[in-house]
Amino acid sequence: MREFLILFFLLAGVFFFTVSTIGLLRLPDVYCRLHANTKTDTLGIGLIFLSLIIYEGLSPVSVKLGIIGIFTWITNATSSHLVARASYYTDVKYFRGKRKDYDHS
């Protein structure tokens, strides 16, 4: 059962990292890319660290992994917020898309 949980969390983390990479390559503007990468990278690294903690068991290494996971969780959101704020203040434009705006007058 322990090996199954380790494999499950590890594969789930790799899945979210893959989704993050696809989002980075496919999404149109910096704001959408930041949103996709922040959410999925945080979840992906959390799941991988959880699988490593289960693998290690209760040890000083697992405590260190937990501390690194919490640090990553905080800094990932903070850095994404700073990049989005800098993009906003330097007038990086939103993606308008191919949607037509119709005049309803």
What report would you give on this structure?
- It is a single chain.
- The chain is mostly helical and 105 residues long.
- The chain has one domain (2-89).
- It is 78% helix and 0% strand.
- The protein contains three helices and no strands.
- The chain has helices spanning 2-26, 30-56, 60-89.
- Helix 1 runs antiparallel to helix 2 and helix 2 (30-56) packs antiparallel against helix 3.
- The longest helix is centred in the last third of the chain and has 30 residues, at 60-89.
- It is elongated.
- The mean pLDDT is 87.
Write the layout of secondary structure elements.
Blueprint: H1 2-26, H2 30-56, H3 60-89
Helix pairs in contact: 1-2, 2-3
Salient structural properties:
105 residues; mainly alpha; 3 helices; 78% helix
* Percentage of β-strand residues: under 5%
Range of helix content: over 70%
Q: Strand count, sense and closure of the main sheet? A: none
Compressed to H and E, one letter per element, the order equals HHH
Q: Outline of this structure?
A:
With 105 residues, this protein is mostly helical. 78% of the residues lie in helices and 0% in strands. The chain has helices at 2-26, 30-56, 60-89.
